[in-house]
Amino acid sequence: MPELPEFRLETYFSRWEFTARFHMAASDAQTMRVADLLALADDADREAWENLALGYTETRGDPGLRAAIADTYDSGTISPDDVLCFAGAEEAIYLAMQVLLGPDDHCVVTTPNYQSAETVPLALCEVTGVPLDPDDDWALHVDRIEAALRPHTRVVSVNFPHNPTGKVVDKTTFRRLVELCDARGIHLFSDEVYRGLEREPARTLPQAADLSDRALSLNVLSKSFGLPGLRVGWIACRDRALLSRLERAKHYTSICNAAPSEILARIAVKARGPIQGRNRAIVAENVPLFDAFFAEFPDLFAWRAPDGGCVAYPRYLGPGDVGTFCRDLVEEAGVLLLPADIYRSELGPTPRDRFRIGVGRRDPGPALAAFADWLHKRAKKSSARR
Length: 386
Fold this sequence. Notes:
The protein is an alpha/beta fold. It contains 14 helices and 14 strands.
């Protein structure tokens, strides 16, 4: 496999994530202490935790964890044998694309995106980007996906609720996409890591693996659960032969997940109702604060709250470029945002006047206050120079 390019987001986070005073670019929901998670465990899982032996675990994942994950699907056709666990979502993306794609294949990826969604396929085969439409509320136009398909297209990769825009497409559009992929014999790779954080639960999309025996549904405990430290993700797919190939690929990476993480993950998945409900409530409480903040600066920002997930992608209207704006903000005020150049694509133009901001952490008030104070001071300096 050719050398992969620098992972811009991780490089930026390596510099600022743990040194900035206010981390306002967080892509995960509010996390929990181990003690709080254990308080949600049933007797059997609490006993399993207390008596856990620190040996190797099954490559496919703890059977109890896979059973709990299978229960999150609605079709009744997803069994524990249709689930394969990974060390986070990134390992799953990396290995799935290597298993699904070869040098003679073609892949379609929506943009903007989480960088590895395009850079891993690009290292393997031809890739076409289909942008979500920023002038139409980040809409996904299925006809544009269809126009991008080729006879050798093997994968279409999408992500809803979307990172970084927070977009959730309507159910009819999503089903049309699944049907299109099935009709062409294409694997739909559906990144669903923010599922469960829809602001309107009625807009929650079905999981792709429920709709098609060729589709792959990606999920993880990092985002809507707010448990990134567990490093547990999974793919659900009814194509058992494909899952077997993925399992063999995992033998070359993590081999298996950490035993403590899998027990805690099992507890979390079983307790998904209260955990995700708490995180939805945090987002619901935070959004009015962000509404009020951005309303104070209408000449600088165009704000749209996310449909789902816990990140948004406002437009920067002010002077200069958004990259300089974000870097000045973190250096001078300690407020971390992610500028649009983190989300630039090799597959075509993407908006360059945006930044990602997180809305899923508790008590954003002090960070918003520091942000506002910096903006007011900057405006005074600008007026004085005139």
